[in-house]
Amino acid sequence: MSELINVNHQRVKTNGIWIHVAEQGTGPLVLLLHGFPETWYSWRHQISFLANNGYHVVAPDLRGYGDSDSPLNPDSYSVIHLVGDLIGLLDHFGEQQAFVVGTDWGAVAGWHLSLFRPDRVKGLVTLNVPYFPRSPNAKPIESVKQMIGEGSHVFQFQEPGRAEWSFARYDYLTVMKKFLLLNRTDNLVAPPGMEIIDYLETPSLLPSWITEEDLQVYADKFLESGFTGPFNYYRAMDLNWEYLAPWQGSKITVPTKFIAGDKDIGFETLGTKEYVEGDVFKSLVPNLEVVILDGHHFIHQEKAQEVSHEILSFLSKISVD
């Protein structure tokens, strides 16, 4: 893509590992944090847009992804580690504070950076994954199992090797199509005895917002890095629950904008819509603006222009304040 010509790439040592970042522009620092199964490339539309509007944009490959290091131990993928990586990036670029934009697991990283170190976050934009309060009693994997069953990808990704084996039966381009072009709106649950990757359909036609070349960029990168790093985020979920006990009941105090696609997986069926529009979310994140757009899970790619403008309007407002 032509607008990516001016993007610089480097690897930064942070928190004991090397993190690859794509960066462009000068001005206040904006971190763009991708989700599963993505890389920095998912922000290709936003990087140049924000850089052209006066921001220093840095989009890392999160640990375990792309050209960043991928520690083998699932315990190295806790939110404590993710936040440590991000603090290291801020320090590397000499910034006391940054704007943070995250989607999916990148949103989880952004929420916890804001929870642990609000002094380092100027403003937060999260896409599709709201901040959920920690259950004082139930660990997440058990909760997922009870709520939507063992066919959930979250449950299936737990056992080391299981998802790696099932994914390996497909070429990487097909895997990317199955996930990135997902347009289901109900819960993502495979029938009993079936692997989630087998259950997902492979669309024969591409939507207008992504090209075969774009999908190949992801496929080539996952061919090099594999999926174990990304799966390890899910394998650290119960560990996160243990680590987060000291923050039980804590609020996220930084200015926040939450953007959701109304057709995201489980947005209607899992109660996410009621939650983000209701009082509990607002009580946990008091300085909150909620925007619901017409779109699916990868809304920053699907509705790139709309999402870019939502991000920019928020950054501009915080800068003026």
Please state the CA-atom Rg, rounded to the nearest Å: 18 Å
Strand fraction equals: 15-25%
Please report the number of helical segments: 15
Instruction: Report the sheet with the most strands, covering strand number, pairing sense and barrel closure.
Output: 8 strands, mixed
Q: Which descriptors would you attach to this protein?
A:
321 residues, globular, 15 helices, 8-stranded mixed sheet, single chain, alpha/beta
Structure, described:
The longest helix has 17 residues, at 304-320. Strand 1 and strand 2 (17-24) form a beta hairpin. An eight-stranded mixed sheet has the order 1-2-4-3-5-6-7-8, with helices on both faces. 40% of the residues lie in helices and 16% in strands. It is globular and about 55 Å long. By secondary structure, it is α/β, with parallel strands linked by helices. It starts with 7 loop residues before the first strand and ends with a helix.
Summary, kept brief:
The protein is α/β, with parallel strands linked by helices.
Which helices and strands appear, and what pairs or packs with what?
Elements: E1 8-14, E2 17-24, E3 29-33, H1 44-52, E4 56-60, H2 79-92, E5 98-103, H3 105-116, E6 121-127, H4 140-148, H5 153-156, H6 162-167, H7 172-180, H8 196-199, H9 212-225, H10 228-235, H11 237-243, E7 256-261, H12 272-277, H13 279-284, E8 288-293, H14 299-302, H15 304-320
Parallel strand pairs: 3-4, 3-5, 5-6, 6-7, 7-8
Antiparallel strand pairs: 1-2, 2-4
Helix pairs in contact: 1-15, 2-3, 7-9
